[in-house]
Amino acid sequence: MVIETSGARKTAVARATIKEGKGRIRINGVPIEIYQPELAKLKMMEPIILAGDKVSKIDIAVNMRGGGVIGQAEAARTAISRAMVDFFKDQDLEKTYKEYDRALLVNDVRKKLPKKPGGSGARKKKQKSYR
């Protein structure tokens, strides 16, 4: 049985494919043990650590594109969590994920505001003086 799911954060999108195997986890073709940067790796490991020893029976492949390093990591952790819940059909695992962090199962929809005219950012404007 093969399960495919996706996760998104800002402009990053991650697709996770999960199947029976020996516990291999690959991120864009790189084993998660040697994935850099370390902070992104730890963020992607959260759902795997919470699942416990169930991970030893499955192989996970994640493909990511768009966004930055942390945006991709958060998209990947959502995709991995959804895939594991679908694969094991385990309500306890889903409950564990929701109690730990709801963003593990639900996409974080916050995006960066677009820049507007008359300023250097989305909200900041040039100051006016009437003196």
Provide the descriptors you would attach to this structure in a database record:
3 helices, alpha+beta, 23% strand, five-stranded mixed β-sheet, single chain
Q: What this model shows, in words?
A:
This protein has 131 residues and is α+β, with helices and mostly antiparallel strands. It has a 5-stranded mixed beta sheet with strand order 1-2-5-3-4. Helix 1 runs parallel beside helix 2. The N and C termini lie far apart (73 Å). The mean pLDDT is 93.
Summarize the structure.
By secondary structure, this protein is α+β, with helices and mostly antiparallel strands. The chain has helices at about 40-50, 70-90, 90-100; strands spanning about 1-10, 10-20, 25, 30, 60-65. The chain contains three helices and five strands; from the N terminus they run E-E-E-E-H-E-H-H.
Count of discrete alpha- or pi-helical segments spanning 4 or more residues: 3
Which structural category fits the helices and strands?
alpha+beta
What can be said about the biggest beta sheet?
5 strands, mixed
Overall geometric form: elongated
Strand order in the sheet with the most strands = 1-2-5-3-4
- What's the total count of β strands? 5
Tell me roughly what share of residues is in helical segments: 25-40%
Strand content: 15-25%
Tell me the distance between the termini. 73 Å
Averaged pLDDT, please?
A: 93
List the helices and strands and how they pair.
Elements: E1 2-9, E2 12-20, E3 25-27, E4 30-31, H1 38-51, E5 58-65, H2 69-88, H3 91-100
Parallel strand pairs: 3-5
Antiparallel strand pairs: 1-2, 2-5, 3-4
Helix pairs in contact: 1-2
